[in-house]
Amino acid sequence: MENIEDLLSILVLEQTQENTFLGKSKTVGSPNVFGGQVLAQSLNAASRTIHNKRILHSMHSYFLEAGNLEIPITYEVTVMRDGGSFSVRRVTALQNETVIFILSASFHKKEKGHDHQINFPEDIKQPEELMGWDDMYENYMDVLPDRLKSFLEISRPVEFKPTQLQNPFEKVDLPPISHVWFKVKGDTSKLDMSIKQQIITYISDYNILAVALHRHGSTAHWGNTQTASLDHSMWYYRDFDLEDWMLYSMESPSTSNARGFVRGNIFTRDGKLVASVAQEGLLRPKNKS
Asked: What domain range is 95 assigned to?
């Protein structure tokens, strides 16, 4: 995928029945369907059953089976509630009649109320000062490890710029935090709030689980650790503009019992908090042969 048009081609689903939708997959470099794709497609299905202009404010989900890239995904939406202020939907994702993913999403009408937020992280370099994934591949492709090179050479509709680059040849323990700027490639000025929320949900599954391995970088890496997203939750607070860079700030409070937990916040460049994220994932050391 090269840009926003390619991304929308998989996020906007085909409607096959009143509350049933069909989605196709595109690889991001892993052998299975990217979790962010299933998250965003599920929200696309849920939002298309909302007819009262209510806005998504939270979702909670579980990944049950790895998705097959070659098989279309069916999304079945159940209307759980349409109340005076909130609407709740449950989405079940299936391949070959096997449930691979479940999600609950809540939508809320606009209301006036109190307002506060946490501050934007301090001492963050601006994206113009940083090297992105595309730059890394172009500048260092001849010396990068094969696994990282294969990951970076895939075209993506989003540009990522971490505030700190880790040397792939150094096995060191790092603080369990990460700050990554991101920007969608292409014109996003005419997208409505619902689609913009689906896009940042898609993006939120990038980078996040890796933060749980930072503290164990001297011994653990993707080559010797089995990884998989187990669940994913998000809360959406404020409208935002996708035309500029946004910051994804993440930290891992705990890793234990072959699981890692990471939480994150997504800010606009001018400091507005637009969403929070939480994910737990499998981090199982592989047995040495």
From this structure: 4-110+125-285
